[in-house]
Amino acid sequence: MAKPKGETYYMKRYNIAVIEGDGIGPEIVAEAKKVLDAVSYNEGFELEYKEYLMGGCAIDACGTPLPDETLRGALSADAVLFGAIGGDKWNSLPREKRPESGLLALRKGLEVFANLRPVKVYDELLEASTLKKDVIKGVDILVVRELIGGIYFGEPRGREGDRAFNTMVYSESEVERIAKVAFEAAMKRGKKVCSVDKANVLDVSQLWREVVTKVSKEYPNVELVHMYVDNAAMQLIANPRQFDVIVTGNLFGDILSDEASMLSGSIGLLPSASIGGRAAIYEPIHGSAPDIAGQGIANPIATISSASMMLKYSLGEEKAAKKIDKAVAKALKDGYRTKDISNYDAKDICSTEEMGSIIADLISKG
Ligand code: IPM
Ligand code: MN
Fewest C-beta in 10 Å: which of 70, 131, 200, 255? Predict the structure, then answer.
């Protein structure tokens, strides 16, 4: 970039908290950083990464899944880039000591109540899905999942003698703020919101439905439909193109977004942004996949696309974000495939590292 004459020139600098986590986490985050470095160089800004522990590796090193230092680092960062956590080694620990509790505590600590999970079907990958091409072609859905409430956090919870229990709780204000995120997003997209609940059975869902309906009055240009979660699970497979924005609670959103990922061909493709709080978290929707960790076969695209969402939502570097999205699409168009999205025989499949380098090179070469 040219240096303006006669003035001190400050390059824009962002402070990114990086949490690689467990399993394939370090491998996929390394590729996202590679791509971020290419695009930031290209666009004339700098990213300063600080690494923090969370999940199983933090349990091993510090005895807790979310060390204070990690939460403090995340709170003071411009954004958090996160890989994945968990693994067999920590599976027998009690719930509050498990790696997953670290992620939940981080989300709660940062107050990121809205989890955006875009589900796009790339034309190039129509063959990669287990579903018929004419059902999934053109699918473009945004799942807006409430992230710091519902049954994940409700009280009371615990164990008593031979019983165990959790509580699904939502307050009006919690539903109202997530509904607003969904309607605002819909205004910029297809102007349709589908609110998913289980209002035929659950009191908490009846409240959810009332509040979403009330919020919808402020958005007369957005069409609102309500759907029971069991029907939504079926409709996602039967006719996914009917959906634009889906808004739902924490647990239903967790389940439906995994289901929706298979429209795109692989859960290894889906990014997410957890926003609305003090610093946002950008993370793939998939887990730490311990079964394939260290083999160099994980798909880094979900994390790379999460990094793109970070540039767009937290850093306001929209042009850079678009460059990443374009490079990802081009890499797929050129036929590069990681194992999860490949129909080729093994020798033609590219590794995690190769996929990252291909995308970074496409950016560098413009
Ligand atoms: C996700 C994950 C997490 C969740 C786990 C790891 C706690 O499945 O981000 O979808 O359930 O939210
Ligand atoms: Mn999940």
Answer: 200
Q: Which of 103, 116, 166, 261 to mutate to test the pocket of ligand 1 (most atoms within 8 A of CB)?
A: 103
Task: Choose one of 22, 254, 306 to mutate for the ligand 1 pocket test, by most ligand atoms within 8 angstroms of C-beta.
Answer: 254
Q: Tell me: do 119 and 178 sit in the same domain.
A: no
Q: What CATH number is associated with residue 242?
A: 3.40.50
What is the number of domains present in the chain? 2
Closest CA to 24 of 362, 342, 284, 359: 284
Number of C-beta neighbours around residue 307 at 10 A: 27
User: In the annotation, is 60 catalytic?
Assistant: no
∠ at Cα 324 (71, 336), nearest 5°? 115
Cα-based torsion angle of the residue sequence 331, 336, 341, 346 in order, rounded to the nearest 10 degrees: -170
Query: What's the whole-model pTM score?
Result: 0.95
Residue finishing a domain among 225, 249, 273: 249
The DSSP call for residue 344 is: S
336 an active-site residue?
A: no
77-133 pLDDT, tens digit per residue, is 999 999 999 999 999 999 999 999 999 999 999 999 999 999 999 998 998 889 999
Provide the domain limits for residue 157. Answer: 140-249
Give residue 321's identity as a one-letter amino acid code.
Answer: A
310: in domain:
yes
